[in-house]
Amino acid sequence: QVQLVESGGGVVQAEESLRLSCAASARTFSTINMGWFRQAPGKERDVVAFINWSGSATYYAVSVKGRFTISRDNARNTVYLQMNSLKPEDTAVYYCAAGSSWKSRPSEWEYWGQGTQVTVSS
């Protein structure tokens, strides 16, 4: 079982930055892939980025490529999402996910955090 707790959300203005963190309880954290997804009001949950167990491979949604960076610290059981040049359309609840998947579909991921709200005002 893996428990995930996100933090770092908040309200910012367009073009500002935020860093999200996700702390995992798993003893096997260094062997599992980690991802960030987001869900805006009235929309489906979409992939943002994910990173493999070692940090050597990453995937980004087209909409965030070049602005967001996913990273992980296996010694701290934590994955991060650095978000720069934020836009109002980035407003959503951001969820951390964990599992063996390397797919962008949320249904492929096994464990989820409770989410953290990110609001970007224009």
Your description of this structure?
This protein is mostly beta strands. Helix content is 0%, strand content 48%. The protein is built from no helices and eleven strands. It has strands spanning 4-7, 10-13, 18-24, 33-39, 46-51, 58-60, 68-73, 78-83, 92-99, 111-112, 116-121. The strands form two sheets. Strands 2, 4, 5, 6, 9, 10 and 11 form a seven-stranded mixed beta sheet that branches. A four-stranded antiparallel beta sheet has the order 1-3-8-7, with no helix packed on it. Strand 4 and strand 5 (46-51) form a beta hairpin. The model has no long low-confidence stretch (mean pLDDT 96).
List the SSEs and their pairings:
Layout: E1 4-7, E2 10-13, E3 18-24, E4 33-39, E5 46-51, E6 58-60, E7 68-73, E8 78-83, E9 92-99, E10 111-112, E11 116-121
